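hey so i finally got around to running the thing on that chain from the lab meeting. sorry it took forever, my laptop kept dying and i had to restart like 3 times. anyway pasting the input first so we r on the same page abt which one it is
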Amino acid sequence: MEDLKQTFDYIKQFLTDERLEKIEHFAPESSDFVLPVLADVYQFRNAAAIVRSVESCGFHKVVALQEENNFEPNLRVTKGADTWVEVEKLPRNIASLQKIKERGYKIVAVSLENNAKMLPEYEITEPIALVFGTEMEGVTQEILDFADETLAIPMYGFTRSFNVSVAASICMYELKQKLMKSSIDYKLDEEKLLKMKIRWAVNSIKSGEQILDKYNKDKNLSI
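ok and heres what got predicted. didnt touch it at all, straight out
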């Protein structure tokens, strides 16, 4: 932990006062209690809109399950949210979902199938990985079979589904509200918080990666 504190103290000297103030202001509300998992989303505008919504709700990581398509958000649509949101890319298969589950997440597929629970009534009591399907086919049957439960957004018109980026925005916002009103300790622990602040600082600095690499080499660290 002390190495992380010293690393952040070193890196932050390269930040402007304004950027450091923003990092210190927004970091404490960050959470990974809800982890968005995107299964082969292929439209770059949707990818970018999801990243932007995730960041706006104070969640700063997404997992992109890739098969045919690379997850490459459109930077003009993210409006800078890609600076703050970590994207972990994994193969689109059940093994990847199992890996996420072993990190302590309940796998929740966003779908009307399998007696889905409706979002307004959904009770979040433990960390969840929220799996969104592709634009055309939604969540696959394989994922539905593996998921611990399914979650759906109520709809009141003839259209029976939302665009994936809209669905992600609604879910992330509603779940954040539920967490804020609960007694759950949903925020990052000190170690995760420091690691995130270091990543934010590095992403905010020109040649930030090189500066961090040199620091790690000089201190014989692997942060």
